[in-house]
Amino acid sequence: MAIFGRKNISVGLDVGSGLVKAVVIDHSSPAPELVKVVITPLNDTAIVEGEVMDHGIVVDAIRQTLVATGLKATHLVVSVGGRDVIVKKIQVERVKEQQARELMRWEAEQHVPFDMDSVELDFQVLDPDGDGLDMNVLLVAAKRELVEAKQALLLEAGAAPLVIDVDAFALHNAFEANHPEAMNGIVALLNIGNEATNLNILDEGVPILTRDLGIGTRRFREDLQREHGISVEEAEELLRGFDRHPLLDGAVSMRGEEIAIGLERATTFLATSSRHFGQVRAVYACGGGARVPGLLPWLAERLRIPVQPANALAKLTVRDGALEFLSADEVAPLLMLSVGLALRTAA
Ligand SMILES: Nc1ncnc2c1ncn2[C@@H]1O[C@H](COP(=O)(O)OP(=O)(O)OP(=O)(O)O)[C@@H](O)[C@H]1O
Ligand SMILES: [Mg+2]
């Protein structure tokens, strides 16, 4: 397609357990412009607990999604996450970049509960211009088989990712672009998906803790079916609605409580393990689960802090027709990860 200056196009691909999402961003103007969104649903058995159970279905959904973007050779960005990825902020003696690489291997052995021979390590010095004896480093370790499995899946779908990022960083990227105010103080970012909730705690914009909770819209659907004897379609309709239906009350308070406890545990851990005694001042929530009517107000009341819906398109220029028949209000919360990935420039 000639309408895109293909060179500066990035495609962010989020293979979620409920929806495969692709976001195309054109970086040729000073402000990134969203030019296309494609969403393909998966059935509830294709991906379970982060594992691809039905290869064929997932590969087809990825292929279909990428074909629908209308682009062939592109800068494709994907990410990995879950319990086989660890992001940790550590303090080490200040050394030069090259020495830091060696030092990180050693540090990782102390901080990462994986076999060092089977991980991909990366790190970022958070205060490169600091002059103290110590420096703050963000250490990332991902199990190699996780990265390889992702590559293999995409290859089968006829695509080769140029960049493999980490979910938490991509989410952070999209929050920074769309909700710059979330980079102040200590805040929690929640991405409430179909089967997992990614929890990310930031201190002045720096991720200090990432964790996954096993809660998502799939749980809500199961609760509603069990509690009220309704069909899965009826349950889904309630979850995607805009009004808080009384049938949702039980599921909202039960799963809301689990999310609240997950968040409280994480902050207690922070308070005991580091100097982060400060309170989380606000929560920003995205993902399909953030759309469950009444959930965010329930959490705000329970946690006694503001819980705001996050919008992946809040500060992005959206080209006319980019969303086609999708409703921006409905899909904007679902696109945080894919937008964060697509914001990576093709440079
Ligand atoms: N407009 C919508 N279209 C599709 N699903 C929606 C919509 N609004 C809310 N949802 C809900 O959002 C869920 C998907 O959310 P999301 O895309 O954040 O999850 P995911 O990334 O696929 O899952 P996970 O990250 O847990 O693997 C769907 O299962 C559905 O219940
Ligand atoms: Mg997701």
The main sheet comes to: 6 strands, mixed
In percent, how much strand structure appears in the residues? 25-35%
Number of strands: 16
Order of helices and strands: EEEEEHEEHEEHEHEEEHHHEHEEHH
Strand order of the largest sheet: 10-6-1-2-3-16
* Number of separate helices: 10
Counting structural domains, the number is 3
Whole-number average pLDDT? 91
Globally, the shape reads globular
Distance between the termini: 20 Å
Describe this structure in words.
This protein is of the alpha/beta class. It folds into 3 domains: 6-82 and 145-179 and 311-342, 2-Layer Sandwich (Nucleotidyltransferase, domain 5), CATH 3.30.420; 85-142, 2-Layer Sandwich (Dna Ligase, domain 1), CATH 3.30.1490; 181-309, 2-Layer Sandwich (Nucleotidyltransferase, domain 5). It has helices at 55-68, 97-111, 144-156, 167-178, 217-228, 232-240, 249-273, 295-303, 328-331, 336-342, and strands spanning 9-15, 19-26, 33-41, 47-48, 51-52, 75-80, 85-93, 119-125, 134-143, 163-166, 186-192, 197-203, 206-213, 282-286, 307-309, 317-318. The strands form 4 sheets. The chain has a 6-stranded mixed beta sheet with strand order 10-6-1-2-3-16. It has a 5-stranded mixed beta sheet with strand order 13-12-11-14-15, sandwiched between helices. A 3-stranded antiparallel beta sheet has the order 7-9-8. α4 crosses α10 and α5 (217-228) runs antiparallel to α7. It is globular and about 60 Å long. The two termini are 20 Å apart. Mean pLDDT is 91; it is low at 1-5. The chain binds adenosine-5'-triphosphate and magnesium ion (MG). Adenosine-5'-triphosphate is lined by residues 16-19, 193-196, 216-217, 236, 239-240, 287-288, 291, 330-331, 334.
